[in-house]
Amino acid sequence: MTHHRRLQDDGSSALPSELVELGRRIDALQGEERRELQAAWARVAESVRRRRRILNLVQEALSQLRLDVKYLMFDLEITRRERDELQAQIEEDDPGF
User: Fold this and answer.
1) CA 5/CA 13 separation, integer angstroms
2) What angle do CA 30, 35, 37 make, to 5 degrees?
3) Domain-by-domain residue ranges, the chain?
4) In terms of Cα–Cα distance, which of 15, 93, 21 is closest to 51?
5) Mean per-residue pLDDT for 28-50?
6) CA–CA distances in Å: residue 92 to residues 31, 81, 89, 95
7) Mean per-residue pLDDT for 26-40?
8) Are the C-beta atoms of residues 47 and 80 closer than 8 Å to each other?
9) What's phi and psi for 11, nearest 5 deg?
10) What pLDDT is stored for residue 90 in this prediction?
11) DSSP sequence for 51-97
12) Does position 5 have pLDDT exceeding 80, yes or no?
């Protein structure tokens, strides 16, 4: 396990600074305890990254949904206007309607 990539705080990993600091402290340990803690740290870090990716996907989906709703509302308003105009034309052409 290469800890250079794991502990680089280049922003792409988007790990909280506390988690990065914990990784540095774990790397300072020796022996079997270090390996066990590194494995646990790696699982937690991957979980944080996965949750952040999921959150980003949900936020993007919500943004798209908002945009889609705006388009639908616009389409609905235009359709209502067209209906009203056609209804007015029908009433003009056939006064007994």
Assistant:
1) 9
2) 95
3) 3-93
4) 15
5) 95
6) 92, 17, 5, 6
7) 94
8) no
9) 90, -25
10) 93
11) HHHHHHHHHHHHHHHHHHHHHHHHHHHHHHHHHHHHHHHHHHH-TT-
12) no
